[in-house]
Amino acid sequence: MTVRLVCQPDPAACDASACELLVLPFWEGPEPASDLSSWKEIFEAPIANGDFKAKAGETLLLYFKKGRILLLGLGKKEGVSSEAIKRAYAAAVRSAQEKRVKKIHLAFPEIPSLESDAALRAVAEGVLLTNYAFLHLKGESLKDKPVVLLKEAYFLGLNKAQDEKLKKWQTIASGVHLARELVNGNADDVTPQMLAETAKEWEKKTSGLKATILERKAIEDEKMGLLLAVSRGSSCDPCLILLSYHGNPSSKDHVVLVGKGVTYDTGGLSLKPTESMLTMKCDMAGAATALAAVQTAAALGLPVNVTAVAPATENAIDAQSYKIGDVYKAMNGKTVEITNTDAEGRLILADALSYAVKHLKPSLIIDLASLTGAIVVALGEDLSGVFCDDEPLVKELVSASNTVGEPLWRMPLVADYKEMLKSDIADMVNSAGRSASSITAALFLQEFCGKVPWAHIDFAGSCFLTKPKHINTTKATGFGVRLLIEFLERRQK
Fold first, then answer.
1. Is pLDDT at 26 greater than 90 in this prediction?
2. In this structure, which CATH number among 3.40.50.620, 3.40.220.10, 3.40.50.300, 3.40.50.11440 belongs to the domain 4-158?
3. Quick check: 269 and 461 in contact, CB under 8 A?
4. Count of CB atoms situated within 10 Å of the CB of 252
5. Which of 281, 369, 391, 459 is found 20 to 30 A from 401 (Cα to Cα)?
């Protein structure tokens, strides 16, 4: 998945006949999106015959001597978005993969509607994020249909000064791939202990990272009764994973990212049906995203202080499983009546939030979780919901999300709905039922954040797709890593 990126300032120096694949961009019409005069004699005939209109994502493969040229449609020139450019170059990479191309040359487009950095980022991310495959679990099928990824990508028309920026996008894309790898893995392999070991491995390989693992005894000492309750049905012990990076020791600013780490969710005694359980290896996507974001911040050397907190456990079934109707005590002392054991994510997040407030001195907390099916019903898979009553924080998150193309939609935190969480025998219930269930889940989490500015991102649809599309070549997307890095970069300024 690591591809060598090279800036080649003079496009005319590229010999088309020597290229495995040369990609030439066009606006709809078609109209060349850069100076393509060196190759005009190759593409003018198919264009004149109407074989290529350059609609968004349209491709046409041409053979030339020993080389191949791919005509790539960018769509309409006026007001084209970064996301449209990304998707177009994703189509180019998929075409390259189909032809088992390892080295690609790309004539860089001139995009009037985007600033130069935004244009560079859009093209680079279209290439880098699409150049991914999860092959660890494939066997015989690879013999019949091998998957070939790009090894080298030459950007024609870019200078060496832009090379450093390409390296930055490559580092961020690598962070996205780290999250994808974890979410795509078997639940039998990606256990709480494997997530902890992964954090330790990243600590060894990345300067500035520090991994701290709280195992069962430490969790018991902290009186994290909700995390312990959810873990009771599993043969795997729970753990609380902390991955910290202090890139600005002179600052007291400290961003804490809390990620849900349910490595497999059966629903517990509130057993899920088969179809709903089929995707539940992805229920640790919040933890994967938070951990990968901190690793990426360290790899980039950002001057920020950030810690990921990942409560990790299975929600399995056993004679010891925590019970519907019983009451369990959280780390902060609140008692919770269990009305649905399939509302387990908010329970383990509650103890993780309490731990962060008590021990980490956070300036703000952002939690990420594949928390509710209701958010998918409301927003589908292209949008994630953000719940936050801190205006500057939510505005910055939404702005960052729009910049990177991982859109957030602000959802309401309706204070009156807290009444729905009241219990007759405890301080609160963990689930108020179907009505406004994404909102009441967020309100439940808010009870464990104290007075710290906090935002909750429910990305149940965006973290694991029904089927791959655009820059996402697998169901696991790594959604949130780019968003969080953009947010942290803005915060440092």
1. yes
2. 3.40.220.10
3. no
4. 9
5. 281
